[in-house]
Specification:
single chain, elongated, alpha+beta, Serine Threonine Protein Phosphatase 5, Tetratricopeptide repeat, 3 domains, six-stranded mixed beta sheet
Length: about 725
């Protein structure tokens, strides 16, 4: 009860932390709070809660503490709770370590997992057990999945207790399957039952001694028990096999931080970021080092940005006139070109506004639906943030703002040169007008009745002044604007390409339409100077023939080629570049349920997935280092899925036409660029569907700190 009160206090304070001013500290910032200070902060927090704050708390199932009924916790208990909250690594748990059973043999594994299944079932309350049995029945009845993979789906759907219930059933049904035993042990580790997970993991390690998935999970289990030296040993072994192992490196960073090795911790985090970037890791890196900066070029995105994804290079505009004769014809062409751009730009603006309106309506409907679900205590829709949004944002920012090599700096410099070119043309115009006056002063006195009237010479010299001006002025303008438009083309393409990773599909369509219209405006707004025939020139000398009005080129379209799905029976995960959705289903019906804030949580982990096709030489739980023909990776933290990728070898099809990067790029890949472009890119649609009945999944546990375990108090007889 005391722990619940303390957590309620901390939660209450966190809710209003963004809108309330904190009192100035009167002691060291890292000192634990006293009972008196907690009561004062609690009272201040409750006094400042608005009706909206209270409504939000109520919808989350949080009850506002009554100061008269809050028991006295005591300064020592508060200090311990504070220390537990701030701890970097768990305290060594001698009691649980001493209770670790012996490693079972293959013959003893069925009895061992049966005991675990019984213990887990006894731990579940009646409501959770009833719900878990519904999922079990649905998974068994679904031929498109396996029970073990359905359990992983529930885990990803924020339902860890029903998930581990199904996984225990799967382990009992097939205790010889290494992926099932590994994933069962991984779930036990992340729910606080590390001592029961280790025997299964040690059994796997004896069979598959160089498997990074198993080694990581052993390291995470020892870490959760507070046996830090053993944890580090196994994590180091996992990292030696797969240097960028995401989970192993993050836990390794915590261990190094606890030793005061911030530089080593920062390096470990950056290796994890190489595997999968997210903002939590970026925050950890900033915590460890202000000097070490992660190069966005190392961040992975599926595929590689084409040189001209919108096809802007295909757009041509009329030539710049260098003579007065060509000027008359080209001025007419430029007028027609500008009109075409205006008309198409107007159409694209309408497309932009349509998508924007539809997106806004969809957003309002989603907010209304989720609000109704939350207010009624049900789960909202499982629409998750785009998995690559953070990395894409950083990569775009780096592309635009990378010091003097960044596109933004180069565009600004080109704009300066364009301004200078405009000023030069202004000076040339003044010079031209001055020379016009010289020609007029020379010939005007000779024009009239009874005079020599050298009309042809008058025309020729006047036109020569115009020709000299047009050639010099338009060469300056053409060169300056070509440089500027080329940089603008790159920026437009970058905005369009990276937008597919950071926006919903509807908003992405709106952005593309707006960028296309903007490009048409830029190319049609180019500054061009024209000339006119001089006095007494025969108008027939001008090129008057009428040419056909040229049509505009068509834009290329950017459509995310990655529309992947993972079907795990009771859970469906679907993603493209910009949207990730998860649906929990019973049969064909999407499943809604009451929220339990204590149990409905997302526990960070990562999956290595084989799409049922392998080389035939690898054994044991699926791991990152395995040479699989088709494999995927999913990673999530405690808030959202942060990484999703599919890889396939050349010529291998898994519901797709995936191609090797060498084939697409027309040559071998520079090894130094593999992190930038990813191991594989493809042509056309590269969507992959991984079905639960064929997928083999290896789960990698994430860091598990003491106190987060749902099954910490489980007992096995």
């Amino acid at each position: 009860m005391k722990k619940f009160v303390l957590l309620s206090c901390l939660c209450l304070l966190n809710i209003i932390a963004f809108s309330q001013t904190k009192p100035k500290p009167k002691k060291p910032a890292d000192a634990p709070p006293t009972q008196k200070e907690m009561e004062a902060l609690m009272k201040q927090a409750m006094d400042q809660l608005t009706p909206e704050d209270k409504r939000i708390m109520d919808s989350m199932g949080l009850k506002i503490p009554n100061m008269g009924t809050v028991p006295k916790v005591g300064d020592k208990a508060l200090a311990k709770a504070y220390a537990d909250e701030m701890r970097i690594v768990p305290v060594r748990d001698a009691a649980r370590i001493s209770s670790i059973p012996a490693t079972p043999s293959a013959a003893a594994m069925p009895a061992y997992v049966k005991k675990l299944e019984t213990g887990i079932t006894l731990m579940l309350d009646a409501g959770t057990k009833t719900e878990a049995e519904k999922f079990y029945a649905a998974a068994v009845a679904d031929p498109s999945t396996t029970l073990a993979n359905a359990a992983i789906g529930l885990w990803m759907g924020r339902m860890p207790l029903p998930a581990i219930y199904l996984m225990s059933k799967a382990a009992v049904a097939d205790p010889s399957d290494p992926n099932t035993i590994n994933n069962f042990a991984s779930m036990l580790t992340m729910t606080g039952a590390e001592q029961w997970a280790l025997p299964m993991l040690m059994h796997l390690n004896s069979q598959y001694p160089r498997n990074s998935t198993v080694l990581n999970n052993i390291g995470q289990a020892w870490f959760g028990l507070g046996e830090i030296s053993k944890a580090e040993q196994y994590l180091n072994n996992a990292i030696a096999i797969h240097p960028n192992h995401s989970q192993a490196n993050m836990t390794k960073a915590k261990i190094l931080e606890s030793k005061g090795d911030m530089n080593g911790a920062a390096e470990a985090v950056m290796r994890s970021m190489d595997e999968a970037y997210n903002t939590h890791k970026a925050d950890q890196l900033n915590k460890y080092s202000e000097k070490k900066k992660y190069d966005p070029k190392r961040m992975k995105l599926p595929g590689r940005m084409p040189a001209d994804p919108l096809g802007l290079e295909k757009f041509n505009w009329p030539q710049f006139p260098f003579t007065v004769k060509s000027s008359i014809l080209l001025e007419r062409e430029w007028q027609e070109f500008k009109q075409l751009c205006r008309e198409e730009g107007k159409r694209l603006k309408a497309v932009y506004e349509k998508h924007l309106r539809e997106e806004n309506e969809a957003m309002q409907a989603s907010i209304k639906s989720d609000t109704q679900a939350i207010n009624s205590g049900n789960t909202p829709s499982l629409l998750m943030a785009p998995p690559y949004a953070d990395a894409a944002t950083k990569k775009l920012k780096n592309y635009l703002e990378n010091d003097q090599d960044g596109l933004a700096f180069r565009i600004k410099r080109a704009e300066t040169r364009l301004g200078e070119a405009t000023r030069q043309v202004g000076k040339l115009s003044a010079k031209r007008d001055s020379l016009y006056n010289v020609v007029r002063e020379k010939f005007d006195p000779l024009i009239g009745q009874g005079k020599s009237n050298p009309l042809e010479k008058y025309c020729a010299e006047f036109n020569q002044v115009t020709n000299d001006y047009l050639r010099e002025a338009n060469e300056i303008l053409m060169e300056a604007q070509a440089e500027y438009l080329e940089l603008l083309r790159k920026r437009t393409n970058a905005f369009a390409y990276y937008a597919q990773y950071t926006n919903t599909p509807g908003m992405f369509e709106a952005i593309k339409a707006n960028l296309k219209a903007s490009w048409l405006g830029s190319i049609s707004d180019q500054m061009v100077v024209f000339g006119f025939l001089g006095p007494f020139c025969d108008s027939l000398e001008a090129e008057k023939e009428k040419q056909k009005v040229k049509t505009l080129a068509e834009f290329d379209d950017i459509a995310c080629p990655y529309n992947d799905t993972m079907k795990l029976g009771v859970y469906y995960l679907a993603t493209n570049c910009s949207r990730l959705t998860g649906h929990i289903k019973l049969g064909n019906v999407e499943y809604h349920r009451k929220i339990d804030m204590d149990k409905d949580i997302l526990l960070g982990a990562s999956l290595e997935v084989s799409a049922g096709i392998s080389k035939g030489v690898e054994k044991g739980p699926v791991s990152a280092e395995m040479k699989l023909e088709v494999k995927g990776k999913v990673e999530w933290d405690e808030n959202k899925v942060t990484n999703w990728e599919i890889e396939a070898e050349a010529g291998v099809s898994a519901g797709t036409n995936v191609a090797h990067a060498d084939e697409v790029l027309g040559g071998p890949i520079d090894p130094n660029q593999t992190n930038e472009i990813g191991k594989l890119v493809g042509k056309g649609d590269k969507s992959v569907t991984i079905v639960g009945a064929t997928a083999k999944i290896g789960m990698n546990s994430g860091p598990s700190l003491e106190g987060k375990g749902l099954l910490r108090n489980i007992t096995i007889k």
